Amino acid sequence: MYSALFVSDAHIGSSKRADEFLDFLDEVKTKKLFLVGDLIDVVCDGPDEQLDRFFDIIKNKDCEVFYFFGNHEKENPHINGSLAHYFKDIKIYDSYIYIGLKYKLFIEHGDSFHNKDIFNRLLKFSLKKFKRVLFKNKSKKEQLAKKKGIYYKIKPIIRNMLYDSFVNYMASRAKKNNCDGVICGHLHCLEQKKINNILYINCGDWLRLNSFVAENSSGNLELTRFKKTF
Predict the structure, then answer these.
(1) Element (H, E) at 194
(2) Residue 189, Cβ neighbours under 10 Å: how many?
(3) How far apart are the first and last CA of the chain?
(4) pLDDT tens for residues 105-141?
(5) Long-range pairs of 174-181 with CB within 8 A, sequence gap ≥ 24
(6) Which long-range contacts (CB under 8 A, 24 or more apart) does 98-101 make?
(7) Model-level pTM?
């Protein structure tokens, strides 16, 4: 059993690997479960079997659950409507400081990065407007087809442009909160490194990597991919 488990960016509602994620979540044993944002995709517009199973698992799992809203949950227009009943009795976090066995960790999805300066705010606004125009009045199937096309080609380019700035920003968030490190998501890039003596860890995603971060019984942090461990 893990002391703590951190996962992000499963994008239930659009991901073809959602069932693999749910199998993992159902099987894994941990004392604390951190769902570090973008578990539900922005295009998810109503109840379905995968969402039913996801919330059934986390509400009945024998551990403490911390659910963080990422940009996809925040921008999903149905979160306070047709999806609202799923979040009954679930506490939502923007950030959290976790005192682990070895490390004091700042936990956040990472999308607050886009509000830190004028350039990032304008970039986020432009991307959001582009997304709305691209997906306006489209069915879920049409939205997914478009996401696989031009939207998914543009997004990695923007992500690579901002990568270094993002990593430094997240490390500074940990430092300002007197933490040893930060665990985040958002970039879909499984990674661990030191930034000015601050431990930076990204959970990766469940679209390509099936990855997670775990604190073991010794307090060490493991970056792992599903089916290599279980």
Answers:
(1) strand 191-195
(2) 19
(3) 12
(4) 999 999 999 877 666 677 767 777 776 766 665 565 5
(5) 174/105, 174/106, 174/198, 174/199, 174/200, 177/97, 177/106, 178/104, 179/97, 179/103, 179/104, 179/105, 179/106, 180/103, 180/104, 180/105, 181/103, 181/104, 181/105, 181/106
(6) 98/4, 98/32, 98/34, 98/183, 100/3, 100/4, 100/215, 100/219, 101/3, 101/215, 101/217, 101/218, 101/219
(7) 0.84
| 109, 186 Cβ separation under 8 angstroms | yes
pLDDT exceeds 70 at position 182: yes
The domain segmentation of the chain, as residue ranges, is 4-225
Cβ proximity of 190 and 223 under 8 Å: yes
For 4-225, the fitting CATH number among 3.60.21.10, 3.40.50.10540, 1.10.1740.10, 2.70.70.10 is: 3.60.21.10
Of the candidates 187, 183, 189, which has an alpha carbon nearest to the alpha carbon of residue 221? 183
Q: Are 98 and 64 in contact (CB under 8 A)?
A: no
> Considering only CA atoms, which of 171, 172, 214, 212 is closest in space to residue 190?
212
The beta strand positions in 59-108, using DSSP E, are: 64-68, 92-93, 95-99, 104-108
Phi, psi torsion values for 199, nearest 5 degrees? -80, 120
Token readout for 211 is 């990855």
Query: In this structure, are residues 12 and 25 in contact, taking their beta carbons and an 8 Å threshold?
Result: no
Per-residue model confidence as pLDDT tens digits over 41-70: 999 988 889 999 999 999 999 999 999 999
β partners of residue 199? 181, 194
